[in-house]
Structure to design on (66 residues):
């Protein structure tokens, strides 16, 4: 259940960053001109890298529970 909550939080913050926090197009502005499949794949890779980094850094702490 904890993994699902963390995945939802990471996904929510990436979506908020893309649609709300980047109001002046400094972070995601280069992606606005790309096609929808390119945007989806870039955001999907960004989410995947966020999950990998989070779980990679938390592995020493969750390893006793595996």
């Amino acid at each position: 259940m904890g993994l699902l909550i963390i995945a939802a939080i990471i996904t929510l913050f990436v979506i908020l960053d893309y649609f709300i926090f980047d109001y002046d197009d400094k972070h995601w502005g280069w992606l606005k001109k790309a096609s929808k499949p390119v945007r989806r794949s870039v955001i999907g890779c960004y989410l995947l890298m966020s999950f990998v980094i989070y779980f990679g850094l938390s592995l020493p702490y969750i390893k006793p529970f595996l």
In short: The chain is about 70% helix and 0% strand. The two ends are 14 Å apart (CA to CA). Residues 2-65 form one domain. The helical segments are 2-21, 36-62.
